[in-house]
Write a structure and sequence with these properties.
The complex is a heterodimer of chains A (301) and B (276). Chain A is mainly α and 301 residues long. In chain A, 71% of the residues lie in helices and 3% in strands. Chain B is of the alpha/beta class. In chain B, the strands form 3 sheets. Chain B has a 5-stranded mixed beta sheet with strand order 4-1-5-12-6. Chain B has a 5-stranded mixed beta sheet with strand order 9-8-10-7-11, with helices on both faces. The chains are: A mainly alpha (301), B alpha/beta (276).
Chain lengths: 301, 276
């Protein structure tokens, strides 16, 4: 290459006529498909009936109240938040054990990760629910929490865990998701710890730091920065995965949607509305996390 | 090397899996009835199916099933708690002790009975046939439908289609993706009749008086027996629920409730966001 050759032009940032034409073609295609649906499908669309299950105008109280689908969305969100917290704790411990020197710790954490990652989620959920949770929860007394005690009968409990009557149901779904997602977080944590260069370990040891000090003050602060972005992504995945626990009748968005679809017989409207709700939730989180990542990247300099 | 790998991965994995199965404690000797009394709530497993159990506009559960379970709990002096459960997993959920009893319009079948106990039936549902008045003029018995010139529509993959094949092997069968389409063909005069679970054909014919009627003098083509399902090994609870059904059949309460939900929709259509 000649040193006098001009540099390649900057990529264009504006849409050309051809781009617009192609977009128009796609939109027209989608619109035509939507139009054809009504021809092929003998179906009476009725969106209002499904929207009533999102928000309902209460005649007696004269105000809007949440109905099944919105309540389901809140349950899904609660499920995701708690499951992420517990999955992060499991992942942190197991991920650290994965990098330990002790053989026993490595065996335990490796067995956990491989066991969870190599069976399909649905199978895991059935095994967990029917064999483990039905034995463990009664043994711990979770199946009969006192609903009138001041610990339970307050607004904070409602915000954090939802309806006390469904607490066991909620707990089963949450623990199930946490154990399941914990395996993936374990691997994220392990990768984060192992991504820190060998030189850091050696330098730490050279100045006489103990293993605990070394981890706490040198390795971990650096690893956390690398762990956070994939962790945020895992959180969004967890929200979507939470739909699977509807199979064991956890009263979250997908399960309540099947109930609404069965009652109203408006199957397509229900699932399109529910799909939209999941999208809004996950996309807004993705945007938020993207924003946070950008800020973190700037502050690091 | 290979052996080490076996010890580091497969063995612990297998050990954890086995531990999960072995640790199941034995069923307690206490009867379910005492357990329900102590707990103060009867937990009922059910699944949404119109008009057995469905959601009202407020999102609450209503239906025949709900009335029955509420009365059972009332007579036991306890509260009722409904556990909506996916139909495919309802028997495993019962065995896993997620609730005490299934009151969910479950038909008695010998296969199911091998896994769970059934009470005596508390309802008898079945399949009904809605026929086009004009096309079936002069038809005297069900045998008239067993003719290649007769078209019967039904929903693909459901019991009605196999029933139609069994009862009318010579008739022309047209399969559709949902009940509403199959029925639309009858209204339009493209099919002589359609078969579906009771009471839907009756509701349809009520909506199109003079055009459509329920064939076989309004009687069901087949009969089902719906009963409560319980875990095996508890004769006391089985005896209680069976006799509850016996008493409420004799005093007419079950029939009255069944008629309210199944005979026509006028009593409850406003409660539920249903297609009219």
């Amino acid at each position: 290459m000649d040193r006098n050759t001009p540099p390649p032009p900057e990529p264009r940032k504006r849409l050309t006529v051809l781009d617009l034409f192609l977009f128009g073609l796609v939109i027209a295609g989608v619109a035509y498909a939507a139009y054809r649906v009504n021809d092929v499908l003998v179906y009476n669309w009725n969106w209002q009936r499904v929207f009533d299950f999102v928000l309902r105008w209460d005649e007696d109280d004269g105000r809007w109240v949440t109905n099944l689908l919105l309540q389901g969305l809140f349950t899904t969100l609660r499920l995701a938040v708690w499951a992420t917290i517990f999955a992060a704790i499991i992942g942190l411990i197991m991920g650290y054990w994965r990098t330990c020197d002790g053989l026993v710790f490595r065996i335990i954490s490796r067995a956990y990760v491989e066991l969870i990652r190599n069976i399909p989620p649905v199978v895991f959920i059935f095994i967990f629910y029917f064999f483990i949770s039905s034995q463990v929860f009664p043994a711990l007394g979770f199946d009969r929490i006192d609903q009138d005690s001041p610990w339970v009968d307050n607004t904070l409990f409602w915000i954090l865990f939802g309806d006390p009557r469904l607490f066991t149901n909620f707990l089963a779904g949450m623990v199930c998701l946490a154990i399941f997602e914990g395996a993936y977080i374990t691997e994220i944590v392990r990768a984060g710890i192992q991504s820190i260069g060998k030189g850091q370990w050696e330098a730490g040891r050279a100045i006489g730091l103990s293993r605990t000090n070394l981890l706490r003050d040198i390795i971990f602060p650096q690893a956390v920065r690398k762990i956070l972005p994939p962790l945020a992504g895992q959180f969004i995945t967890l929200i979507k995965d939470s739909a699977i626990v509807s199979l064991i009748s956890i009263q979250e968005l997908t399960f309540l949607a099947t109930e609404v679809a069965a009652t109203t017989t408006k199957v397509f409207e229900t699932w399109i509305v529910v799909g939209g709700m999941y999208f809004m939730l996950c996309y807004s989180l993705a945007v938020t996390f993207g924003h946070l990542e950008n800020r973190a990247a700037r502050s690091r300099r | 090397m290979k052996l080490t790998k076996f010890f580091t991965t497969i063995l612990p994995a297998a050990a954890i899996a086995v531990a999960g199965f072995v640790s199941a404690p034995q069923a307690q000797a206490q009867s379910l009835l005492e357990e329900i009394q102590q707990r103060g709530t009867l937990r009922v497993g059910m699944s949404t199916f119109v008009p057995w159990a469905m959601r009202s506009k407020e999102g609450d559960l209503v239906g025949f099933e709900i009335d029955v379970a509420t009365k059972v709990a009332e007579d036991m002096g306890v509260d009722v708690e409904f556990v909506p459960t996916a139909w495919s997993g309802i028997i495993p959920a019962l065995l896993a002790n997620n609730f005490d009893v299934i009151i969910g319009g479950m038909s008695i079948t010998p296969q199911r009975n091998l896994t769970v106990n059934f009470t005596i039936p508390y309802a008898h549902s079945g399949q009904q046939m809605a026929a086009n008045t004009e096309l079936t003029e002069g038809f005297e018995s069900l045998a008239d439908y067993d003719n290649p010139a007769v078209t019967i529509s039904c929903r693909r993959g459901a019991t009605p289609c196999s029933l139609a094949q069994e009862m009318f092997p010579n008739a022309t069968l047209r399969r559709f993706d949902d009940d509403a389409q199959a029925f639309q063909e009858v209204v339009n005069g493209n099919a002589h009749a359609t078969i579906s679970s009771a009471p839907k054909p009756r509701f349809w014919s009520a909506a199109h008086p003079g055009k459509v009627y329920v064939a076989n003098d309004g009687q069901n083509l087949s009969k089902g027996d719906e009963a409560f399902a319980l875990r095996k090994g508890d004769p006391d609870a089985l005896n209680f629920f069976s006799n509850w059904i016996r008493v409420n059949t004799s005093n007419g309460w079950l029939e009255e409730r069944h008629n309210f939900w199944f005979q026509d929709q006028s009593g409850w259509i406003d409660m539920v966001a249903l297609e009219q």
